[in-house]
Design goal:
There is one protein chain. By secondary structure, this protein is α/β, with parallel strands linked by helices. Among the domains are: 12-199, no CATH class; 200-317, no CATH class. The protein has helices at 41-45, 60-71, 95-105, 113-118, 125-141, 145-153, 160-171, 183-194, 202-209, 214-223, 237-255, 278-288, 301-317, 329-332, 342-357, 361-366, 368-377, 379-389, 392-411, 416-426, 445-456, 499-505, and strands at 12-14, 30-32, 46-49, 79-83, 89-93, 173-178, 476-479, 494-497. The protein has a six-stranded mixed sheet with strand order 1-3-5-4-6-2, sandwiched between helices. Strands 7-8 form a two-stranded antiparallel ribbon. Strand 4 (79-83) and strand 5 form a beta hairpin. The chain is elongated.
Length: 507
């Protein structure tokens, strides 16, 4: 993942197509620092097109160097704007430059007043960490914006260099160029200019193209936990609120508890630590739904249905829901070295959907302990299938079929040797000898994680009914001897189980 700073809140989004005309009034020639302060009326006039990707391509060093360039009075390219007939001013080119400068002025690198309000108090630990890193580095090399403001008021307190830069900053302004034309001209200009900027990857392009469709709306809603810019704001209020609520629940199901490396606890998140992984979220939505409409969602009902279907699958995988299997992420979604494995995650989503459709939860539960032992012990076989197909997405269905083969074989009474031979027969390129152990590797995060995981699993809490590993997010307390059979409510008559084992399988 790129370690970039999230500046997306600095300039708000707006629908580019709110009018069909253009205006020539209220055009300014420059933007000064005071125009970009949190309480400035000018800042509230600035907009980004709603189809523009997130302003998060610059890392800490790029932001630092840009602000330093302003202080050193280097050449700064003009900002290109377009204004519609109602006075909304759209940034056609220069959003990152403006946002970086605004972040410094307002001391908000993704965790300040503007960002906190924009994301409705829901800011990830990683975003906060990167914001703090940016703040520390910028203060060390340049100093805060407030320092230069104070240097104008109390010059005797500062060096000649600081005083000189403060005077230059006071007179600095972004030069403005204006696009002439209606909305179609402005949109064409935007794409022509921005094709030369940071290349758009396939996932970003997919999301941009689907920004008004169920997939795009749902993916952004989940990534931002129902906060940020509301791509769903055109729907009825009740639908909006449901989208935000379900999206937040999905985000929590995926990314809580927070996961850090090296792994020092088995209480890890289902989907790793990167909640802004739009590729992962898009794929999850696709694998969790039979069909996702390619048409624009007019009312929001299709988006909401996509979200609800996805939530149902995630609740079965790992939640407090009574029907949850409570699959432990360490066993199913992580390598022995503590790295999240998207292919395993996708395959498990498909596997769980098949179990649900074929009503095979009991069959799986009856062999679950042996199933988990096999896939953990033989994880290198799973890795080989993924590598041979050279694609995480292409691996999803073959890995799901592998899980079905293992379950069916265990249900038929096969031992580990028999299952391995069956796998070799089905996947003839598989090497049943694990020759992947690294020799002489330093004691890095991978080795530290592997050591912790292997040690912790020896004493992990196991389900008192099926014997599978229990996760903190998905556990239940059960009576060993049921109340109706005379069981007491004492601790001695209690056991930790998976929710489904307690409420479904046992009964």
């Amino acid at each position: 993942m790129k370690k970039t700073v999230n500046l997306d809140a600095m300039i708000v989004r707006e629908d580019f197509h709110v009018d069909s005309g253009y205006a020539v009034s209220n055009r300014f020639k420059q933007l000064k620092a005071n125009d970009l302060r949190v309480d400035s009326a000018m800042r509230f006039m600035l907009r980004k097109p709603d189809f523009q990707r997130e302003t998060r391509d610059w890392n800490v060093t790029q932001i630092t160097n840009f602000i330093d360039s302003i202080l050193e009075r280097h050449f700064i390219p003009s900002i290109i704007l377009w204004q519609n007939s109602v006075g909304a001013t759209f940034v056609i080119d220069g959003a990152h430059r403006l946002s970086a400068f605004m972040a410094w002025i307002n001391d908000d690198y993704g965790d300040g007043e503007i960002s906190t309000e924009f994301y409705n108090q829901r800011i990830s630990d990683e975003q906060i960490s990167l914001a703090n890193k940016a703040r520390i580095q910028i203060e060390k090399k340049i100093g805060r914006y407030s320092l230069y403001q104070d240097a104008l008021k109390n010059p005797q307190k500062y060096s000649e260099d600081i005083r000189k830069k403060a005077m230059g900053l006071e007179s600095f302004a972004f030069d403005i160029q204006w696009i002439e034309g209606d909305v179609s001209v402005a949109e064409k200009s935007f794409f022509n200019i921005n094709q030369k900027a940071v290349p758009i990857n396939t996932t970003e392009l997919k999301i941009l193209e689907a920004r008004n469709k169920p997939l795009g709306i749902a993916a952004r809603a989940i990534a931002y936990s129902g906060s940020g810019y509301k791509y769903w704001k055109g729907f009825e209020l009740e639908i909006q609120e449901q989208i935000e609520s379900v999206a937040k629940e999905i985000n929590d199901l995926l990314f809580l508890p927070k996961t850090k490396r090296p792994i020092t606890t088995l209480d890890v998140a289902v989907a790793g630590k990167n909640q802004m992984d739009l590729q992962l979220i898009c794929d999850l939505l696709v694998y969790s739904n039979d069909v996702i409409s390619e048409e624009k969602d007019q009312e929001g009902k299709e988006t909401l249905e996509v979200l609800k279907n996805t939530k149902k699958i995630l609740e079965i995988i790992n939640s407090k829901n009574p029907g949850s299997l409570g699959l432990h992420p360490i066993i199913y979604f992580y390598s022995k070295k503590g790295n999240f494995k998207p292919a395993n995650f996708y395959a498990t989503v498909l596997f769980v959907r098949e179990l649900k459709q074929k009503k095979q939860f009991d069959k799986f539960t009856s062999v679950r302990a042996e199933f988990e032992e096999f896939i953990y012990k033989n994880d290198y076989i799973i890795d080989q299938i993924n590598r041979n197909l050279r694609s995480t997405k292409k691996s999803a269905i073959p890995l799901k079929e592998l899980f079905v083969l293992i379950m069916d074989s265990l249900a038929d009474g096969c031992n580990e040797f028999d299952i391995r031979q069956a796998i070799k027969k089905k996947y003839n390129k598989i090497n049943l000898v694990n020759d992947e152990d690294e020799i002489g590797e330093s004691f890095n995060a991978n080795r530290k994680s592997e050591t912790y995981i292997s040690t912790a699993l020896k004493s992990v809490v196991r389900c008192g009914i099926c014997g599978g590993v229990v996760h903190v997010n998905s556990s239940s307390v059960d009576h060993i001897v049921r109340k109706r059979d005379g069981g007491l409510g004492s601790a001695e008559n209690g056991q930790i189980t998976h929710p489904y084992c307690n409420t479904g399988y046992k009964n």
